[in-house]
Design a protein that fits this description.
The protein has helices at about 1-25, 30-55, 75-90, 95-110, 115-125, 145-155, 160-180, 185-190, 200-215. By secondary structure, the protein is mainly alpha-helical. The chain has 2 domains: about 1-55; about 75-215, Lysozyme (Orthogonal Bundle), CATH 1.10.530.
Length: about 220
């Protein structure tokens, strides 16, 4: 502690001597340099004075921590393009279609905090990435949503819009998962309803979605 204090005092004395020498030649120095020099020297004196006070009070002088490197996120358009390419190659979907759907799927996954591979696999199973498909029970769109049953729940007045349709499908699946407690139960309920007795059909549906999800997860970029 005493050695650090002596070093700081020596530096402080040296700076004060330098200040005195510069001040003695002040008339020969341009005004701009005078102002800059005074500012720099004042900062040095204050810094060493603070360090010296810290030593006197028994504190250890340490360097400021270097901030951690900022995490750089992937731009949205590049993320969409990469996921679209993966969907296209894994599922054999046209590249332009896969990229268009990728934006909606990624947005839905963020809204509901769900895996995008799961939502993409559900869309493939339900509609094969077709926008205007309609079932014989009135389910519409890529995620096959029944407007009369889920339209009010999702707050959407236009489930024929593919983006809103996928957002609603993800919202419904998230809700069913909360009720069931796991994804498989949620998928079964999504397919046949919560209280349905069509157990075998529901299991085949879940196996199909799981197969597509594993296929997409394991597909190399």
């Amino acid at each position: 502690m005493g050695e650090i204090e002596d070093q700081n005092m020596t530096r402080l004395i040296a700076i004060r001597k330098s200040c005195s020498r510069i001040w003695s030649h002040r008339n020969r120095i341009p005004l701009l340099f005078k102002l800059q020099g005074v500012a720099v020297l004042s900062a040095l004196v204050v810094a060493l004075g603070i360090a010296n006070v810290g030593v006197h009070q028994g504190y250890q002088v340490v360097a400021f921590a270097v901030p951690a490197a900022e995490v750089i996120s992937v731009p949205w358009d590049l993320e969409v393009a990469a996921f679209g390419s993966k969907v296209s190659q894994a599922f054999g979907v046209r590249r332009s279609t896969a990229t268009e759907f990728a934006g909606w799927i990624l947005e839905a996954s963020r809204r509901q905090n769900m895996e995008p591979e799961l939502i993409a696999s559900l869309v493939l199973t339900e509609s094969s990435f077709r926008k205007t498909v309609r079932s014989n029970v009135g389910a519409v769109g890529p995620a096959q949503i029944r407007p009369d049953y889920w339209g009010g729940f999702c707050g959407s007045s236009d489930l024929s819009d593919p983006a809103e349709n996928i957002y609603c499908g993800a919202q419904v699946l998230s809700y069913l998962q909360e009720r069931c407690g796991d994804v498989n139960c949620a998928l079964q309920a999504y397919n046949v309803g919560i209280h349905s007795s069509r157990v075998q059909a529901a299991r085949r549906y879940v196996a199909k979605v799981d197969h597509h999800r594993d296929q997409l997860r394991n597909f190399p970029l």
